[in-house]
Amino acid sequence: MPQLRDERSQAHRRLLSETTVGRSRSCVLRLEDPRASSLHAVLAWNGSAWELRDLGSRNGTFVNGRRLESGERELLESGVKLGFGGQDQVWTLVDDEPPVLGARSSTGDWEEAQAELLTLPNPESPEVVVYADEKGQWVLEKEYDSQIVEAGFQVQAGGKLWTLDLPQHLAPTAAAPKASTTLSFSELHIAFKVSSDEENVLLELQWQGHLRQIPHRAQNYLLLTLARARQEEADREPAERGWCYRDDLIRGLRIPENQFNVAIFRARQHLSRAGVIGAKAVVERRRGSTQLRLGTDRFDIVRL
């Protein structure tokens, strides 16, 4: 992950998509050096690289020994040496990879995304899920609703207040020809293979003549239930097919309410780990409603 190393203490500090530097309590990287200004500089990911900008500091911001002009921006690469207020207190950019989707809590905890999904307060108790949709917008899903959010948005989860760190996305580029081994959810066909007693539900992922299987998992039955609801309404307009109310699903599946979000998270997670790009779309939520549905018509249901 992107981080700075303090060359005196060898301590590492994680970089957020926008990391303010200075002596102020509000700064992400808080300095104790009296030569540093309260709000000294900012390191930010611009969508393709890290850049450093001096914020009018009195004693200067240095990049490999060169002092930046007030307000000047400098693109950074891994290994560059930085100074804030002086050149004897050196920080090294040890990783210039893009920032990761994550959130920090009011108590200092950090949680980051797994398989393209950020779950708060943690993957074992997902009260909130954050992910990027196909347009590059950040979507926050709570128990009963979803909304578009931006960096710095705050949300309660697990009894703590979390501040989202949402990396800047580049505008979508023209799609290059896909390799035959790339699984895109939008092109995927899912075969639900169900045992006669319905105790086992396997998922067979089919694309471009290739097959990949996801063995039986408890959450597969949730997907099967959503698939059946969508199949039963095949004569309706695509936008109206298969919507199910959350409470009806919980009752019908006979699962504890606090495990419902876990099942959705794990269904998405297992598809993502199987290499499916955009696996979060397997379960779609209707905004302003408690309804959910399977996110595709490209499936069939067969008996084992």
Structure notes:
Helices cover 13% and strands 38% of the residues. The strands form seven sheets. Strands 2-1-11-10-7-8 form a six-stranded antiparallel sheet, with no helix packed on it. A five-stranded mixed sheet has the order 4-3-5-6-9, with no helix packed on it. Strands 13-12-19-18 form a four-stranded antiparallel sheet, with no helix packed on it. Helix 1 crosses helix 3. It is elongated and about 75 Å long. About 4% of the residues have low confidence.
Key terms for this structure?
304 residues, mainly beta, six-stranded antiparallel sheet, five-stranded mixed sheet, 3 helices, 28 strands, 13% helix, elongated
* Radius of gyration, taken over Cα atoms and rounded to an integer in Å: 23 Å
SS class: mainly beta
- Main beta sheet: strand number and arrangement? 6 strands, antiparallel
User: Number of DSSP helices?
Assistant: 3
Total beta strand runs: 28
Percentage beta strand: 35-45%
Strand order of the largest sheet: 2-1-11-10-7-8
Residue-averaged pLDDT: 89
* Distance separating the two termini: 44 Å
> Shape from CA axes?
elongated
Low-confidence stretches: 170-180
Which bin fits the share of residues in helices?
10-25%
Summarize the structure.
The protein has about 300 residues and is mostly beta strands. Helices cover about 15% and strands about 40% of the residues. Strands 2-1-11-10-7-8 form a six-stranded antiparallel β-sheet, with no helix packed on it. Strands 4-3-5-6-9 form a five-stranded mixed β-sheet, with no helix packed on it.
